[in-house]
Amino acid sequence: MSHYHFDTLKIRAAYDPSLHNQAVSPPIYQTTAYEFQDTKKAAALFAFTEPGFLYTRVNNPTVDILERRIAELDGGSAALALASGMAAISYTILTLAEGGGRILASPYLYGGSTDAFQRLFPRFGIHFDQSAAVIDNPAELEKEIKPDTKAIFVESIGNPTGAIADLETLAAIAHRHGIPLVVDNTFATPYLLNPIQYGADIVVYSATKALNGHGNLIAGLIVEAGKFAWGNGKFPQLQEPEYLLRDRSTGRKRSFLEVTPQAPFVTRIRLTYLNYFGAALGPFDAYLTLLGVETLSERLQKQVENAKKVVAYLEKNEHVAWIQYSGLPSSRYYQQGKKYFPKGLPGIFSFGFKGTIAESEAFLDAIQLWSYHVNVGDARSLIVNSPKTTHSELTEEEQRKVAIEPNLIRLSLGLEDPEDLIADLDQAFATVFGAAAQKERQS
Ligand SMILES: *Cc1c(COP(=O)(O)O)cnc(C)c1O
Questions:
Q1: Domain at 296-442, CATH from 1.20.140.10, 3.90.230.10, 1.20.1600.10, 3.90.1150.10
Q2: Whose CA is nearest to atom 6 of ligand 1?
Q3: Whether the CB of 377 sits within 6 Å of ligand 1
Q4: What does 349-362 look like in DSSP terms, one character per residue?
Q5: Which atom of ligand 1 is nearest to the CA of 86?
Q6: Would you write out the chain's pLDDT as a tens digit for each of its 443 residues?
Q7: CA–CA separation, 283 vs 384, rounded Å?
Q8: Nearest to 152 by CA among 137, 171, 168
Q9: Which atom of ligand 1 is nearest to the CA of 208?
Q10: Is 110 in the pocket of ligand 1 (CB under 6 A)?
């Protein structure tokens, strides 16, 4: 089906109406548990020799459809849905560096990720080397990989500065050192970019954002590519025989690699971190996310176009000091953007407000149509002063290091009419700087 611009059939995967009274929309399996039928079947389920549903903390038929569809869309072997993007990231990191180790990461990350990496994970013996070279100079990266480095972690397009990772180069370097490349693909979604196509081994999502796109739930996903050589000795947690996976009749212990050679990573997380730490996605939220994914291509393409129009407006505005949008030829990420985002860039970018902090706050207070809250990729267009909100966990110095200036304003384009969005920005600038000056500028 490669002739499709975007393979909509994959969005309809993993569900057969003929098994559900011909219901077109997948049912919400609002159940805690599942009948085992008989003792033989129960034994097989618990030995994982037969697929099936055990308990909704571990798996659920509605959640399962979401997992299969996202795995299909990203070209992965399997996926695991979780209660949040942070759970997806944290379980991934804990699994990769279990018992201690290092992760080489981009510094241009979601504020919550950087905060957890710098201040929480070290208490578990997991240390992060956040190096700008990951994005800006991957060829220099080789020397940053230490014997106990367990993975490279990047966002495909960074938050909120628009830094684009050279996934192909990063994957090649990671694989030379026997470690996986992990990509947070939240902004791009599988519609704009499939990291696995460029060699990524694990893709994580906050489905809270553009994947669901309606600002009504929190969800996360982990997708496994299914090609990484986990048996190379660096990841004994996937390679060594486990009591959990013993064959109940013979007592023989098996490893995750042996039981699920195509998906040992997400299966390990499902049966350990999800099972015991418990950030399970509920079936109703999985159902809402399935609805959101139905319109993924339409929403994302509209956001791409809306962003281009708003950027063109801001470029001509005298109260704009700079624009960080990787689609501008002046951006250092312009070429990278052309390569990795042929359909266009996600509608999330930032600009520098030219004026005092008080004026920028008056500007935000004058905005009517755009929403002022922290979420991106939503159906509603969003405007936010990141240094004071989304990235307020970081110190001022940490903010400066990742190019988050005090006057930064972040936009995330939604689905409204672009002319209306521009008119709203215009009236807010006029409120702050005076309508007369505004008019003069336009003539
Ligand atoms: C929001 C976000 C997260 C965290 O996801 P939650 O679903 O809010 O837990 C992680 N990464 C990126 C890039 C995000 O935007």
A1: 3.90.1150.10
A2: 85
A3: no
A4: EEEEE-S-HHHHHH
A5: 9
A6: 445 667 888 898 999 999 999 999 999 999 999 999 999 998 888 888 888 999 999 999 999 999 999 999 999 999 999 999 999 999 999 999 999 999 999 999 998 999 999 999 999 999 999 999 999 999 889 999 999 999 999 999 987 679 999 999 999 999 999 999 999 999 999 999 999 999 999 999 999 999 999 999 999 999 999 999 999 999 999 999 999 898 888 889 999 999 999 999 999 999 999 999 999 999 999 999 999 999 999 999 999 999 999 999 999 999 999 999 999 999 999 999 999 999 999 999 999 999 999 999 999 999 999 999 888 999 999 999 988 887 777 788 888 877 788 899 999 999 999 999 999 999 999 999 986 555 555 65
A7: 31
A8: 171
A9: 7
A10: yes
Could you tell me if the CB of 185 is within 6 A of ligand 1?
A: no
DSSP letter at 103? E
For the chain, give every domain's residue range: 8-292, 296-442
Cα–Cα distance for residue pair 65/71, rounded to 1 Å? 10
The token pair that represents 256 in the structure block: 């995750």
399: tokens are 């903010």
Domain 8-292: give its CATH code. 3.40.640.10
pTM of model > 0.90 = yes
Reading the block at residue 285, the tokens are 């939220």
Q: Using the 8-state DSSP alphabet, how is residue 27 labeled?
A: P
Question: Which of 86, 120, 153, 348 should be mutated for ligand 1, with most atoms under 8 A from CB?
Answer: 86
The answer to whether 72 and 10 have CB atoms below 8 angstroms apart is yes
Measured in Å, residue 339 CA sits from the centre of ligand 1 at: 24
| CB distance 218 to ligand 1 below 6 Å | yes
Please report which residue ranges of 107-255 form alpha helices under DSSP H.
111-115, 133-136, 167-176, 189-192, 236-239
- Does the C-beta of 209 come closer than 6 Å to ligand 1? yes
